[in-house]
Design a protein that fits this description.
mainly alpha; 9 helices; 82% helix; 0% strand
């Protein structure tokens, strides 16, 4: 029996490694200081696991909108775009990683972009673990018991925020004060990145509009 298990593991080392790094998220959320340190320094995490957790968070967001009881969450589906809802989580997360990595690279941060992205991916684990059961609870609890649902919602967000901070501390080897400073700087960096992206797409749109108008003018004169 042991030989069979070892043989299966040796035949699929990548799959075994994936499930180990995915299961490691449960260790990270309860022992974040050791967890995030080993995540980046000892190679205990993986991009595949981080992407899986983020994908689960995006799916959880959509399921929450779809199946949460109207007593706790009122959704006007005529105004909801599923892709936009998923991007509303993923894009800010990606922009945060870019901004944080840019700042910390300039000021002796130890983590790479890959480390920052993995850290953020593992840090959203409590959102999945708590928000999914909350969907079921919302259809069981009464309106008078809604305070319990609200507490769980707040706990899931605070837990994720706390993991975000610890992840930055351990990945970049910063003190708490320096981490808070670079968190503020990263938020400012996100605004700069969003501004530059909007400016780029605005210029791109104007350029495309100009060439389209020029093409139409040429075709009009040729005819």
């Amino acid at each position: 029996m042991t030989n069979t298990s070892c043989g299966a593991g040796s035949r699929h080392p990548a799959l075994t490694r994936y499930f180990e790094t995915l299961r490691y998220a449960l260790h990270v959320i309860v022992r974040p200081f050791d967890g995030f340190w080993d995540l980046s320094r000892e190679g205990r995490g993986s991009l595949a696991a981080a992407n899986t957790i983020i994908l689960l968070a995006l799916v959880t967001r959509v399921l929450k909108l779809q199946y949460t009881s109207f007593q706790f969450l009122i959704v006007h589906w005529e105004n909801v775009n599923v892709l936009r809802e998923m991007l509303s989580i993923y894009l800010p997360l990606l922009i945060w990683c870019c901004a944080n990595w840019c700042w910390t690279t300039l000021f002796d941060g130890k983590g790479s972009f890959r480390d920052v992205y993995m850290g953020m991916g593992y840090a959203v684990t409590p959102y999945v673990l708590l928000q999914l059961p909350m969907i079921l609870l919302s259809n069981i609890l009464t309106a008078k018991e809604g305070a319990f649902w609200g507490v769980l919602h707040i706990v899931s967000l605070i837990w994720c925020a706390g993991l975000f901070v610890v992840a930055m501390m351990q990945i970049h080897d910063f003190s708490l004060g320096k981490t808070i400073l670079f968190t503020i700087m990263s938020l400012f960096g996100m605004l700069i990145i969003v501004f530059l992206l909007l400016l780029f797409f605005s210029l791109l749109s104007d350029a495309v509009g100009y060439f389209v108008a020029l093409y139409r003018e040429i075709m009009f004169r040729m005819n």
